[in-house]
Amino acid sequence: MPLARLAAALRGAPRARPRAPDGVVAYAIGDVHGRADKLRELERLVCADAARRAAARRVVVLLGDYVDRGPSSREVLDHLCAPPPDGVERVCLAGNHEWLMLAFLDDPGEAGPWLANGGAATLASYGVQGAHGLRGAPAGDILRARDELRAALPAAHLALLRGLGRMHREGDYLFAHAGIRPGIAPGDQVEDDLLWIRQPFLSSNSDHGCVVVHGHSIVQEPEIRPNRIAIDTGAYATGVLTALAVEGERVEFLRTAP
Fold first, then answer.
1. Is this prediction's pTM over 0.90?
2. What's the angle, vertex CA 150, arms to CA 142 and CA 214, rounded to 5?
């Protein structure tokens, strides 16, 4: 076949369907945001689903944003610090809200962005006094709240927060909290994009060389595109926490009741 015709045929060839590695079922859980009740409910659904599969390896990737907005951030981190269910690997990635919490712990001058994005709920879950009245409070009150949080925060929680990964890959699926910068190889992505990006990622039709599974940007229903899958269904407000399951070429969803 002449080279021109071969190139045209290749351009028109259907793209291979993305696959998880052989013998693996991989789950991704969207943004929890302080809903420990929904995390436990969804984990039970995931474990029941995994038990019916023949896969030799079962991996659960949590996409970050464990804290803020919902009422039980401390309970969520308690749960993630405990061992995963038998036969399940757990991978915890960072979200931008964990980044904001750590920034506040390191420097109370960084309180503004965190408090504007639901940080007061996290402070309250650790018993910090006056947590919900701190926005715009004097610097002394902010410093006191930071010191109270430091004192109340278990060492295991801090170690978890500081040790969170930024991305994870299973076969043709790449997991990251917010997404990736189009046109940049996955290995060259920067933290700011992995934790915070919306555009141009959400509107991009680029072939990233993988399917990016992400949260961060709320969708009413899971959104499946050729280059990405969005699964943040706003659990803190809707009660619906969503998990993606991929095995071979199969893509399925599990979700909690509202």
1. yes
2. 90
